[in-house]
Amino acid sequence: MYSNRIYQMAVHLVLIMMGIAAVFPFILLISASLTEEQAIIRDGYRLLPAQFSFDAYVYLFNQYSLILRSYGITTFITVVGTIIGLLITTLVAYPLSRNVLPFRSFLSFFVFFTLLFNGGLVPMYLVYTDLFHLKDTIWSLIIPNLLTNGFYILLMRSFFSTSIPGEVVESAYVDGANEWVIYCKIVLPLALPSLATIGLMLMISYWNDWFNGLIFINDGSLYSIQNLLNRMLSDVQYLQQNSLSGQTAVVSSVPLGSVRMAIAVIGVLPLIATYPFFQKFFAKGLTIGAVKG
């Protein structure tokens, strides 16, 4: 009994230390974004700001209309991309989990093959711009990520194969249900834990995506929040490196160090704010799914 309590205390201590290690960088990030620029240069980054300053956030929110529009675009591609991604993932994974599917092994290998090899950046760019004409469209921020879900498909297929009882599917057949009814009313409700996990990963990948916007978007009105903040940071760096003598005082007043940190905070804060609500759904999904009789 005593040894068991020691073990539990050790596990709790390790988990607490891991939690602190995970939270500490974000606290440092917020602190640096609220620190006066000269204090960062003089004292470096600290856990608590040496001199409080909101200059970085004032600089960013002077362009609030651009930021709000980019937030809207990012929210749209995240919601739509996650929903479509989950739909495609389950529609491909469920048939692959059924033993009655013809060429099941070949199709599974084809999905796995996409994890090992791809056509490269140039062919991808040519396909989406010259063949599908997606350049400077909102869909160029959604569709490319939909075609890189091989890992999620295999993960979901494994869940369907191991966690969906065959007796449930067979009883549904006996009751006269077709494949669509089984998929919509039996398989998806039982797969809520896996859907919540994959949905969270898709949501994070869409929210943090900046590469597709970099290569497919030239229209500033279609910038996601990551692309906009990256562009703002690049503009500040360019001005500091190439400013004329008369502009040096103005450009040097821009708090570049704290602006970097404020950009990171603005980019990640919505995910942190919405994650607890998603976590509730995820925890609820863990309690659903069992053979009832």
Question: Could you explain how this protein is built, in words?
Answer:
With 293 residues, this protein is mainly α. It is built from 15 helices and no strands. It has helices at residues 2-33, 37-43, 55-61, 64-96, 104-116, 121-131, 143-146, 150-163, 166-174, 179-190, 192-208, 211-216, 225-242, 248-252, 256-286. The protein has one domain (54-286): MetI-like fold, CATH 1.10.3720.10. Helix 1 (2-33) runs antiparallel to helix 15 (256-286), helix 3 packs across helix 15 (256-286) and helix 4 (64-96) packs across helix 8. The chain is globular, with a radius of gyration of 25 Å. 75% of the residues lie in helices and 0% in strands. The longest helix is centred in the first third of the chain and has 33 residues, at 64-96. Mean pLDDT is 79; it is low at 285-293. Pfam families: BPD_transp_1. Keywords: Cell membrane, Membrane, Transmembrane, Transmembrane helix, Transport. Its main location: membrane. The chain crosses the membrane at residues 6-32, 73-94, 106-126, 138-155, 186-207, 259-278. It is found in: Cell membrane.
What is the element layout, followed by pairings?
Elements: H1 2-33, H2 37-43, H3 55-61, H4 64-96, H5 104-116, H6 121-131, H7 143-146, H8 150-163, H9 166-174, H10 179-190, H11 192-208, H12 211-216, H13 225-242, H14 248-252, H15 256-286
Strand content: under 5%
User: Unreliable segments (pLDDT under 50, ≥5 consecutive)?
Assistant: 285-293
Name the quaternary structure. Answer: single chain
Within the CATH hierarchy, at the fold level, what is the topology?
MetI-like fold
Order of helices and strands: HHHHHHHHHHHHHHH
Q: Can you tell me the CATH class?
A: Mainly Alpha
Q: Could you name the CATH homologous superfamily?
A: MetI-like
Largest sheet, in brief, is: none
- The domain tally reads 1
C-alpha-based Rg, rounded:
25 Å
Tally of individual helices: 15
